[in-house]
Amino acid sequence: MPHALIVEDDEIAREALEELVRDAGFTTATAGTLRDARIQLTRQHPDVVLIDLKLPDGTGMDLVADIEDRRATQVVLITGYASVETAVEALRRGASDYLTKPINLERLKAVLSRVPKSGVLRAEIGKMRDELRDSGRFGRLVGRSPAMQRVYDQLARVAPTEATVFLTGESGTGKELVARTVHELSRRREQPFLAINCGAISPNLIESEMFGHERGSFTGADRMHRGYFEQANGGTLFLDEITEMPLELQVRLLRVLETRQLMRIGTAQPIDIDVRIVAATNRDPRIAVQAGKLRADLFHRLNVFPIEIPPLRSRDGDVGLIARALVEEINAEQGAHHTISPQTVALLEKHSWPGNVRELRNYIQRLSILGQLGSSQPEPLDVERPSNSASPTPSIVLPLGTPLSAADRQLIVSTLQYCGGDKKRAAGMLGICVKTLYNRLKEYGSAAEAQGMR
């Protein structure tokens, strides 16, 4: 039976909470001060600690550092003084989650329902570590490079908690795969995982798609619609390209993250939600804040546990491992027995992969279609034009002090002109997805069209 430690200085509140936790199937120990709580920690290792923020001899966050194995113990902060700063600081210092007073019983039940799985998660992470040593795999992720080892260490620490994760990295580095790994190593693994590209949804529909709407709330709303938050309730919501979300919607998203409640369009009835957020962007988020593309308060709320995904060119020795894993996927899908030749692997390892793992996957698929995976002279890669070519890639010069938004615009316009209006090629050079490029061009409007875009 799982064990809970309840640290609360108010005797009536402590006894009421103890009864609720016992009803959820836990044995319990209680403490009214940090001193008593530390004594209880030495007597029995708890599976969950529910800690009041304000105690007579300190704060609940002071106790977090005393818990030896935070992956094995879920730490939940309880406070009547909730704020974004309090929540973020608690999560950064090792708390798994937080509850506000008066305690929402459904939220408490949801938190406790995930606690007994902590032992399973520890075993799963240990198994993945063994697999990494044997085959270079960490769950869905492939690679043994030092850069990826650092990512695996971060995932092993944060996944079993409830902390919000903010992924950054170039387009094509596999941010969604990392987000899925976070979900699959969490206590929410049996609940939904929903991946949303914020730049791929029409600005006119994104509020309805995100938060839902009631029947008749606007023209065409002929039925009630549950938004992404409700669809992912109990699980994980991956918000990719978060910097492409309209600013007015970022305000509402921040409110939902703070209150854990939402209201569908067309109603004032709040709905409790229990969703873990993993956000991602291929931009530098701080530059996006400076450029007015990402609200500073939302960035600080999301940036609880940042993880930077390295580009493929920085992952020494991983290209061959990933290529062989991709061939295994193709064989499994097609019932084939393809092998990849040493000559092909050598060719792959010499390429800089500006499109990262996505580009590598596309090339392996092309070789498979052409029947050249085992060839000693495979289809050549698209390589950058040498610097001493007769037609070098042109450059642009911007004066110091040029606003970031203007520099962003000029770079995109010039790149698209250089590519002859080929948006796919331009997006690849810029390291963004085609949908993001379309969204930027839409922002520029007729001025962009006047410069020859199509």
TrEMBL record:
Name recorded for this polypeptide: Regulatory protein AtoC
Domain Response regulatory: residue ranges: 3-116
Highest taxon in the source lineage: Bacteria
Gene Ontology MF, one: sequence-specific DNA binding
Key words of the record: ATP-binding, DNA-binding, Nucleotide-binding, Phosphoprotein, Transcription, Transcription regulation
Domain (Sigma-54 factor interaction): residue spans on this chain: 141-369
Coiled coil: none
Gene3D superfamilies named in the record: 1.10.8.60, 3.40.50.2300, Homeodomain-like, P-loop containing nucleotide triphosphate hydrolases
Residue numbers spanned by region Disordered: 375-396
UniProt record, GO biological process: phosphorelay signal transduction system; regulation of DNA-templated transcription
Modified residues (4-aspartylphosphate): D52
